[in-house]
Design brief:
elongated, alpha/beta, five-stranded parallel beta sheet
Length: about 525
């Protein structure tokens, strides 16, 4: 499954894409009437080069009861208003330059010969285009298929490797019907994002984003407040194995969620079993330290046998995801059976889908399922596999194709890859969510238990997205079928038509990409 771009051809419309113009003129002709003239059969003949400008203006004047001289003045004003879209042209120039000559850029425009002559006098980087095809020159107009076929024939472009951008849906539809990847130009930023995503390597771009923002991958609340915390930093480190990306306060024993002063909560915030369990594993703490901390943790189990969240008896809280992460620590060091009652409850949560609305501290169902998969992968325990894995496979398959943010999708994909389930559906949804800067949109992972304020981290989302793509690529090397159509907007489920491949059962105890941490623990302590 390769994600390097296979596209070699870009075709752009000119009017309302590469150039903007105003239908507001100094004449008596209203913008509405001017647009109606542009949509008339007479104007279509004019753009095909079948009639002259004089004949066109005369015929249109009769059809719309307007003096032909007034029509001439109105279109002169429209020509004067033409402005090149330098932002988009700059993006195209960048994409073409970095392609090492592999990307060819063309234009297709419904435009008359006289209007095209005027257009070429406007300041723009015309050298950017290998060829510009006009309706007057070809004798065909969009959306008629003849125009597209003439361009394909003249350029030798492979439609399946061609991206077509136009502001009119009917023109994009015709391009798609011939096998091109069609983008409707309805929003500049989303179109630019789509172009970068279609023409770039998502893994390489994601890594560049992380490198460019190293040590600055802060978490943020849904109210826009930035938070320095350890939990996301630890997960970024676990996903990337790159210490240079993160900023951590390593306590060498127990961990606090916050770095420094707590925000939006009590002034004194206790150390917690959740961050501590993650920290001890990710940082590869010495066995004596880990065992000492686990001994302390056993003092925080309630009457139901469920391990708690905080090293503080004044805060009796429990959460399924926290329980899973504590179980992971105990199983990693061969002490999982000490939390059997917690494990039993976790399986009940999984069995009865109690996680579907998230948990007290975690925002999505995927958080619970993802960390359960992490438990299985790190523990490599035969008993756990038999007890949890079959049911976990059922539950994650139920989530495939369900709406989710980029973090939820990445977690879902990583778990599918670990369990041997090909998931093209969610992969196709995740890829277009990559932003122009190479990072993925923020996804919500946890929340304040009392207020419900959500916390996310673009660095974490990007790290897990990159890892999910790589794991899917390594687990399923066969190509991801290329859709013939994508939308420029992030929500593209409806644009893709792909069938989920049958699940492939993994061998017991195996994993796709065993983390060095999990491997060393398995070899040394279990």
């Amino acid at each position: 499954m390769s994600f390097a771009s296979n596209y070699t051809t870009l075709i752009f419309d000119i009017g309302d894409v590469l150039f903007s113009w105003s239908p507001q003129t100094k004449t008596s002709i209203s913008p509405n009437t001017l647009r109606k003239i542009l949509s008339s059969p007479t104007w279509a003949d004019y753009e095909r080069g079948r009639i002259s400008q004089v004949e066109c203006y005369t015929r249109v004047g009769g059809e719309f009861s307007v003096d032909p001289t007034e029509i001439s003045r109105a279109f002169q004003d429209a020509r004067d208003s033409l402005q090149s879209n330098e932002e988009l042209i700059s993006v195209i120039r960048h994409l073409k330059a970095r392609s090492d000559g592999m990307l060819h850029v063309f234009s297709m425009s419904n435009i008359s010969a006289p209007d095209y002559e005027v257009l070429r006098t406007k300041p723009a980087d015309w050298s950017l285009f290998d060829t510009i095809f006009t309706s007057a020159g070809v004798g065909e107009r969009k959306p008629n298929l003849g125009f597209y076929k003439a361009v394909i024939s003249s350029t030798g472009a492979d439609p399946s490797r061609t991206i077509f951008v136009d502001d009119k849906m009917e023109n994009v539809l015709s391009a798609r019907s011939l096998g091109m990847c069609g983008i409707v130009f309805d929003d500049h930023s989303s179109v630019v994002r789509a172009l970068y995503n279609l023409l770039g390597d998502p893994v390489e771009r994601g890594r560049q984003y992380l490198t460019m923002n190293a040590k600055k991958l802060l978490s943020v609340t849904d109210s826009g407040i930035f938070i320095r915390e350890n939990f996301a930093q630890l997960l970024i480190l676990e996903a990337t194995h790159n210490q240079n990306l993160v900023d951590l306060n390593d306590t060498h024993r127990t961990w606090n969620f916050f770095q420094g002063k707590p925000l939006l909560t009590t002034e004194e915030f206790p150390f917690d079993l959740d961050t501590t369990s993650i920290g001890l594993i990710v940082m590869g703490s010495p066995e004596d330290v880990a065992h000492s901390v686990m001994d302390d943790m056993l003092n925080y189990i309630d009457d139901d046998g469920i391990i708690q969240t905080y090293f503080d008896h004044r805060r009796p809280r429990f959460d399924p995801v926290v329980c899973v992460n504590a179980l992971t620590l105990f199983y990693a060091y061969g002490r999982g059976r000490q939390l059997d009652r917690t494990l039993h409850w976790i399986r009940e949560v999984l069995l009865h889908r109690a996680y579907l609305d998230g948990t007290r501290y975690y925002a999505t169902p995927e958080c619970f399922l993802y960390f359960l998969g992490r438990l299985l992968e790190i523990s490599n325990d035969v008993y756990l596999e038999a007890y949890i894995k079959p049911l976990l496979m059922e539950r994650i398959q139920e989530r495939i194709g369900v709406d989710g943010d980029a973090l939820a999708l990445s977690m879902r994909l990583q778990l599918c890859a670990y369990l041997g389930l090909r998931n093209d559906v969610d992969l196709r949804t995740l890829l277009p969510l990559q932003c122009e800067d190479g990072g993925w949109e923020i996804g919500w992972i946890y929340k304040y238990g009392s207020s419900g304020i959500k916390i996310g981290n673009r660095g974490l989302t990007t790290s897990l997205a990159v890892k999910a793509i790589l794991e899917m690529q390594q687990r399923f090397p066969s190509p991801l079928s290329s859709p013939s159509a994508v939308s420029a907007v992030p929500l593209v489920e409806q644009a893709y038509t792909t069938a989920q491949s049958p699940p492939e059962q993994r061998k017991s105890g195996s994993s796709i990409i065993p983390s060095p941490i999990a491997t060393s623990l398995s070899a040394g302590t279990m």
